[in-house]
Structure formats: C-alpha cells, structure tokens
Amino acid sequence: MNIILLGPPGAGKGTQAQKLVEERGMVQLSTGDMLRAAKTSGTEMGNMVAGVMARGELVTDEIVIGLIREQLQNGSEGGFIFDGFPRTLAQADALGELLDEFGQNLDAVIELQVEDDILVARVVNRAKEAVAAGQSARADDTAEAMTTRLMEYYKKTSPLIGYYHAKGQLKSVDGLGTMDAVQADIAAALND
Ligand code: B4P
C-alpha cells in the first residue's frame, strides 16, 4: 500500500507516519526530514535550502522531486508513506509519473484537518520543549515562520485536496484528537 499524508504544517503528518511505520512496516518518505538532513550536510544544496526552510517557504519542486525519485528506486515491500510530499500540483503530477515508472499505485491520500490556531500552538510548543530539553528548536517552528508556512500551504498545497478528491483517492481525517485517536481514525479510513 502506498499512501500520502496531506495537511498543513504541524497537522501531525510526521507523527502519524511514524505510527504507520510501526504498525504496518511501511517506509516513511518525509521530504522535510530529507531536507533537514541535507541542511546539516554542508552541501551546496543543503546551504541553499536552509534559508528557504527557515523562512517557512517551500523548497523548489525540482529538488524535492529529485529526493523522492532517489528513494523510490530502493523499493519497499510494505509500501511507502509520502509524508509532506507532494506539496504542489507539479509535485503531485511528478509523483503520479514516478509511481507509473516504478510500477506502483497510489492507494489513498489521508488529509489531516486541524485549525490554524492549534497548528501554531503545536509548533511553538515543540520549539519550547526542544529548548527545555537542551536541544535546538527547528528554525521554522516560530509563530513568525508559521505565518509564511500557512500562507504557502493555502496557496500551493491546499489545491491538492480537490486534485485527489477528483481522483476518488481522498480520505479526510480529524487531526484534532489525541495522537492515538488520530491513529485509530487513519486506520479506519485505510480499512474502509
Ligand atoms: P515538514 O517536515 O513536512 O513538517 P510539518 O509540515 O511542519 O509538520 P507535520 O505535519 O509533519 O507535523 P508533526 O507531526 O511534526 O516540513 C518542514 C519544511 O520543509 C516545510 O515548511 C518546507 O520548507 C520544507 N518541505 C518539506 N517538504 C516539502 C515539499 N514537498 N516541497 C517543498 N518544501 C518542502 O507535528 C507537529 C507538532 O504537533 C509536534 O510537536 C507533534 O508532537 C505535535 N502533534 C502531532 N499530532 C498531535 C496531536 N494529535 N495532538 C497534539 N499534538 C500533536
């Protein structure tokens, strides 16, 4: 099974992807994690994306599509969870082409629905927890960067809801409950 986790920043895509990995042995492909790893690698690409991410903007389609292509080549018996990808219509079209190329299907798109004020509270809280634990907070986990991240989401990513709804692949889940409650709702949507 290959699925997409779609939703605004802080909706819990990464959190729920982890649970699906444990539950179903799927492979998580998080473009956010890949880009954060690139950032710390000191490569030209890493330096280029660091500022873009800190401002809360989206990295170019070309870079993220290239990252996903590399990972798809490795295959996965349990299937892939696309976590935070696609985020633009161009990325969605590219994913369709890549899945065709690798002989794979897309089984479902899970949209996590959470209101903006809760999203901001979650990421600001994550930053506070990181600092309290003596770690550095994510550069984009600030109320200021969240304003840009949410604008980017509504402008560039939210059109994917209609895109996948039209294909009959969209399943919307309330992302406001506890992490376990959201996990149970995703399981129910996938078993539907
Ligand atoms: P991502 O790493 O994808 O992060 P995200 O959207 O902010 O968070 P996510 O929805 O995964 O929330 P999480 O589980 O972490 O993106 C970061 C940046 O990378 C983007 O802004 C962009 O610059 C770049 N990028 C990534 N993919 C890209 C692409 N395809 N194209 C272009 N650019 C791209 O949860 C957030 C917090 O909420 C956590 O603290 C968690 O513990 C908490 N939480 C989760 N579920 C909860 C629940 N049910 N109740 C209470 N708290 C909960």
TrEMBL record:
Positions annotated to bind ATP: 10-15, 126, 177
Gene: adk
Official protein name in the record: Adenylate kinase
One annotated Gene Ontology cellular component of this protein: cytoplasm
Reactions this protein catalyses: AMP + ATP = 2 ADP
One example GO MF annotation: ATP binding
Family annotation (Pfam families): ADK (PF00406)
Broad EC category: transferase
